[in-house]
Amino acid sequence: MSRCTRAILYKENLKYNIEQIRKYIKAETKICMAVKADGYGHNAVLTAKMASEVGGIDYFAVATVDEGIELRNEGIKANIILLSLSTPSEFEDLIKYNIIPLVFDKEYISLFAKAAADHFKNSGEKYPVFLAVDTGMGRIGCYSEQAGQEAKFIEDTNHLVLKGMITHFCVSDSTVEKNQEFTKKQYEDFKKAVENVKKMGIDPGICSCGASAALLNNQDMQFDMVRPGIITYGYYPDEITKEYLHSVHKEFDIKPVLSLETQVVAIRHFKKGQTISYGRTYTCPEDTDIAVLPIGYADGLLRRFSPGLEVTIKGKKYPVRGRICMDQCMVDLGKNNKDVKVFDKVVVFGPKESGALCTADDLAKIGNTISYEVLTSLSKRVKRIIQ
Q1: Which of 39, 276, 352, 354 has its CA at a distance of 20 to 30 angstroms from the CA of residue 161?
Q2: Class of residue 114 by CB neighbours under 10 A (exposed 0-12, middle 13-18, buried 19+)
Q3: Residues 26, 199, 272, 278: which is the catalytic one?
Q4: 145: which DSSP letter?
């Protein structure tokens, strides 16, 4: 028996999104699908398996070694890139499970080269790495003028081989002109880094700079591989919305992959003046019926979504009243509502196919955040089910 609070994954919607991405980019451009943060809250293993079955994905991207190991243990054979740095204690597992790391300074490269040498016992086998370049994100990576020397250092270790180069844009999801200009500057800086590596007589490998936003808004910045994340799951990256793209004569359509649903477990009658939930923040202005739902902030339904959140029951919206609790929340049905009954399905957000009238974007606006946080906040106790 499964708990009624669950997340449904629509495989056909994921397939549709991947197909849209493939149509939007050049035929020769590779796709690295981000499945970090448990597949943006969708479940990394399930999304990676679905994507593998659908096809068109060349790489998967994770943020921790454990995330990569989980994919390998579940039979994912595709290339996996680690987008964050690991520590020396993780190097052996990283190599054992064939996860490609990012490197960028001599100390880190030296330590990883030693781990590779120890693993292969000086057999001459070389382990692939990507050189990270910091073009303005201010996170990890060498600067473009250092890229040639860092690439040479990688090659000179005799235990590593440069598989590719990567950078990350920090404001490509903005429509503000100065931010778009900064993205162009980052792109040009990355091009210089790639040229500096080539000048050293080294093949830079697979070069990648564009995640979801740049993929959509800067089609000339594809290089050899794009790294879609949020658009794979059916949401647009911040200000690069469907409407904005249309306004600049670009068309790109995607569908949300996940729906969050639960059931009504009780309906209670409240009198005018009665209060609801912790802090007594909501007082009933009139007699009404209140539905109790077994979902709360421990499931990822953030406390700050109330007031404002409306759930869908049988094609109608109903507002959450009072503070969302750890495991439950309460919804106002109105007085003598004959349409809603105990154990009726409730959809918090999702695609049209789920019957939802809200999306993760709608919740994000209520919580003053972005769809990424809404999705990745879903906890492990919310079972993900493929439909």
Answers
A1: 39
A2: middle
A3: 278
A4: G
